[in-house]
Amino acid sequence: MAAGSSSGALLTLRVLLFCALAAAATTLLPLATSPCTHSLSRSILAATGLDPYLFSCAGGDASEAPLLSQGDDGANKTGGSGARRPIVTDQLCVKGKLPPHALPPFQCCPPVSASEPINFTLPDPSEPLRTRRPVHVVGAEYMAKYTRAVALMKALPRSDPRSFYQQANVHCAYCTGAHRQVGRPDLGVQIHFSWLFFPFHRAYLYFFERIAAKLLGEPGFALPVWSWDVPEGMGIPEVFTDEASPLYDPIRELSHAPPKVADLDFFLGGEKNLTDEQQVLHNLRVMYKQMISGAALPSLFLGQPYRTGDAPMPGPGTVEWAPHNTMHTWTGDNSLPNVENMGVYYSAGRDPLFYPHHANIDRLWEAWRGIAGADGRRHEDFTDPDWLDSSFLLYDEEARLVRITVRDVLNTERLRYRYGGVGLPWLSARPPVTPGVNPKGGRLESVRFPVSLDTAVTAEVRRPPRAQRRSLQEKQAQEEVLVVEGIEADAGDFVRFDVYVNAREYYKVPLGGREMAGSFTTLKHPGKEGTVVRTSMTVALNELLEDLGAEGDDSVTVSLVPVRGKVRIGGLRIVYMEE
Ligand code: C2O
């Protein structure tokens, strides 16, 4: 592609970098060794390797670094050399890494295709438009179809890539590093904790649905959706709990069987014991934060860039943290060390509830695109060709191996499906502010990053220059973002910490209060027992600071509160992001 034509499409990640590690820490840090001229996504990657860059940004002075990419042509940003680096899945698949105590089968590579993969082509526009609707809306007759489809898939021989066994394995292969990257046989493909999350799962469901339709002989068959974000859908649908049904999975958390209301904010061992009404309200506020105030930019919603050669898991978007991860953990058997089946990547696809769960995740992507941001324009996906050209290998309904790119899956109507039958009740669930939890005065104890989060840590983080005086247009153009970087979490555990803004007395903030700005929450990372997940977290601040009446302040107070598991934090800073 010619540079001229690609430049407009490139992800323009213009970042005014302002390095605001907790001010007190700056004196302890080495002098800057390089200027802060990385793009944000690149700096996050660097930081996750605990690169000295983290410290190099600790000048502490509110000097404004140059814009990284000015106008169209600076768009290149992360590659350095400007070379294109999409992650392309190779046919080569090795034995993935599974956690200790994993349940068989232990091998999840797909059957080898006799022929080369074919390139994806869109379905004929005259095909019926499937409408995926919620389980609680479609009724028993419809669910009987999904049940039959799963039964038919389960009845296929295991060697058939369309069998339920192989379909479950697809997820296992793509999350345990089994699939190799083209040109990098040393690197696996990881489709979680990055910008591959939404498009991979969309492509996966697309073929799963078409396989089901083909087996049923019903071209219009559409997957049911587990809409856990609307009050009527907040719980495991009854039809999945009939022990005689092919939809039943015995390896689930029994105490979360219906009529238990789901906790979208769940973590292992963290039963909230709320009334149903309280839980529903809390869930709606979680949705509001994850879909609206926290998700103003593509990378905040879709996840951080991940290109070939990069360390995996640079950082997920809001919805992947929660409710995605949280609902996986909530559904799996909490008494098992890995919380199978739903609670751990390698086995999640073995539960027939996985597919309606992910249909809801996919529906939320569509919903996000339909929501207008602060500037009144609808959210848009990345236009970075590395994202668009990343590709996956999946078997279609004719058992042909297909190469499908991210670009191929961006328009659901072209894929001949859409969502219907459900609203977005959380649009108006803006969380309330808690008065009196951030008494001023009295110096905060200095924090020395990197820090082990054994107890809660509260730090003052300086805002970028002129942050207090930004015009409405500037705010609309650039999101102020808190970056929690250099996060190292115990990969062998379910880890969670919460991020509060302007709440020194965070323990007084009621559940779901506005000051609770985000939660870091992981599933166990396959095969990495005893090692660490390195990643980062980004938290949008524009609307939050507006609600907290803190737009005029020079700095914000950030509290990192450990909830579960071992985690280390590299640093905190606030930047402007624009994509
Ligand atoms: Cu690929 Cu819900 O996980």
TrEMBL record:
The set of disulfide-linked cysteines is 93-109, 108-172
Ligand binding (Cu cation B): 324, 328, 358
Any GO molecular function: catechol oxidase activity
The signal sequence is: 1-24
List the Gene3D superfamilies hit by this protein, alphabetically. Answer: Di-copper center containing domain from catechol oxidase
What is any one GO biological process for this UniProt entry? pigment biosynthetic process
PANTHER family in alphabetical order: POLYPHENOL OXIDASE FAMILY PROTEIN-RELATED, TYROSINASE FAMILY MEMBER
List residues of the Tyrosinase copper-binding domain: 192-209, 351-362
Which keywords does UniProt give here?
Copper, Disulfide bond, Metal-binding, Oxidoreductase, Signal, Thioether bond
Any note on cofactor binding? Answer: Binds 2 copper ions per subunit.
Similarity comment:
Belongs to the tyrosinase family.
**Cofactor requirements of the protein:** Cu(2+)
Q: Cite the binding residues for Cu cation A.
A: 171, 192, 201
Cross-link 2'-(S-cysteinyl)-histidine (Cys-His) lies at: 175-192
Under the heading InterPro entries, the entry gives: Di-copper_centre_dom_sf, Polyphenol_oxidase, Polyphenol_oxidase_C, Polyphenol_oxidase_cen, Tyrosinase/Hemocyanin, Tyrosinase_Cu-bd
Protein name as annotated: Polyphenol oxidase, chloroplastic
